[in-house]
Amino acid sequence: LQRDAKGQYLFDLLCHHLNLLEKDYFGIRFVDPDKQRHWLEFTKSVVKQMRAQPPFTMCFRVKFYPTDPAALKEEITRYLVFLQIKRDLYHGRLLCKTSDAALLAAYILQAEIGDYDPGKHPEGYSSKFQFFPKHSEKLERKIAEIHKSELSGQTPATSELNFLRKAQTLETYGVDPHPCKDVSGNAAFLAFTPFGFVVLQGNKRVHFIKWNEVTKMKFEGKTFYLYVSQKEEKKIVLTYFAPTPEACKHLWKCGIENQAFYKLEKSSQVRTVSSSNLFFKGSRFRYSGRVAKEVMESSAKIKREPPEIHRAGLVPSRSCPSITHGPRLSSVPRTRRRAVHISIMEGLESLRDSAHSTPVRSASHGDAFAGPGRGGRADSSERVAVIADESYSPADSVLPTPVAEHSLELLLLSRQANGAPCSIEEEKESEAGTPAAEAEAGGELRALCPGTATLGPAQAQQVNKFVLSVLRLLLVTVGLLFVLLLLLIVLTESDLDTAFFRDIRQTPEFEQFHYQYFCPLRRWFACKLRAVVSLLIDT
């Protein structure tokens, strides 16, 4: 990439190689050195948004979940959304009952391995694959039963469509959880869905606010405020506390973008939003894309031959690392591939390599799976259910799937051998990655940019923000003083006799100020002015 290349150029380049036209639902995500997630802003330079040194690792993700994914125009778009939701299910973000989980997993099996074949699929074949953070034998039997008896004959496209239709009905469809705390100090997860703002605590949805009820969002430091106007003119303010100011700002920007995308009728209605009531304080942000209604109208006009889709199958040797189990060592050597030369097929394969394909469970890691997870503990194999109704912890999957395997491969394997599950901190580390490890990882998008600055990007950004704040404060102060001076001159020197001015002039305080301070100051200033004029005339 050129140093001044915008994010839009990089995104268009990627969508061109994926042969994707309905691209407004997707985005590019990256993680900074402080393990904070960001969405790549398309109107800004790629290099200026990165705080790390090149090469940069980014992830192709669904940014705005379609309100009705089954209504998407092209099959390739539905397939990419299917991959994202399958990943959400695998990381515990898509909360569902055991019966729904079995049906969703069966759809995945049908889409990726086809009809049940006794010769190819021996008893217990569904237990070889990992669809959820936790499995139980009862659930695995249910998945196999549905796959054998109910889904025979369905094509991959039909199974994916049925999967999307079922996933769209779940309460946590489209949830990308942001960890926070409420005013009482209780842990909570905030999320923005196609239908509104959601607050999750434990496995319960404690708040759901429609987009047309959200009147304002702002943040100050670590504090996030959501202003809600409900029926009967009832107004409430929800307050939550993010772990860091950067996380709070990211939460705010995500909220602004989601509200604009789903709520507005036209992109021309988008306005620049400030995080503070005072224009010289806080951050300013503007959503730069199209809104959902415009995207649907544009999709309806697509007229082309459907592009060929090379679906990723369930290949044991190509499974992915995860926060719940160690990575399987691939028998296929990874080769360095430049993103600008990958074909459509290689692009989808690379997405699979970055944890989009369904992982295959390893017998050597079975004990680690059977152990208790961070979200809760199971007393028996029957209770080690999927995303169990008793426990739900989005904190286990707050970040995207790691894209750099090799830097943590030995560490993860050694920890899994001891029965210790991987933590979210490890996933953050593997997501951010190191340049050396990322250079060989598959399924990643790299942007190599020349040149480095003497001052670090993070320090330069902080200095720029400080200087800009000082300049804004100075400008506002000078402006206020100028307005007060004009008002004072009008009060003391003009002949305007309005009720407002008359009331001020008749106050004792103003009369005292006028005779004791203003008049002497005016005489002194006039004397000095005459002296300067006389000096100029004499010279």
UniProtKB/TrEMBL annotation:
Location within or outside the cell:
Cell junction, Adherens junction
Q: Could you tell me which InterPro entries the record lists for this protein? A: Band_41_domain, FA, FERM/acyl-CoA-bd_prot_sf, FERM_2, FERM_central, FERM_CS, FERM_domain, FERM_N
Enumerate the Pfam families for this protein: FA, FERM_C, FERM_M, FERM_N
Q: Which PROSITE patterns match?
A: FERM_1, FERM_3
Q: Which residues form the FERM domain?
A: 1-266
Residue ranges spanning the membrane: these are 470-492
Single GO biological process annotation from the record: actomyosin structure organization
Q: Name one GO cellular component term.
A: adherens junction
Keyword terms, alphabetized? Cell junction, Membrane, Phosphoprotein, Transmembrane, Transmembrane helix
Q: Which domain of life is it from?
A: Eukaryota
Q: Does the keyword Membrane apply?
A: yes
Disordered: region residues: 357-377
User: What is the recorded function of this protein according to its Swiss-Prot or TrEMBL entry?
Assistant: May be involved in regulation of cell migration. May regulate cell-matrix interactions via its interaction with ITGB5 and modifying ITGB5 cytoplasmic tail interactions such as with FERMT2 and TLN1. May regulate ROCK1 kinase activity possibly involved in regulation of actin stress fiber formation.
The name of this protein is FERM domain-containing protein 5
Per the UniProt record, the source organism is: Furnarius figulus
Gene assigned in the entry: Frmd5
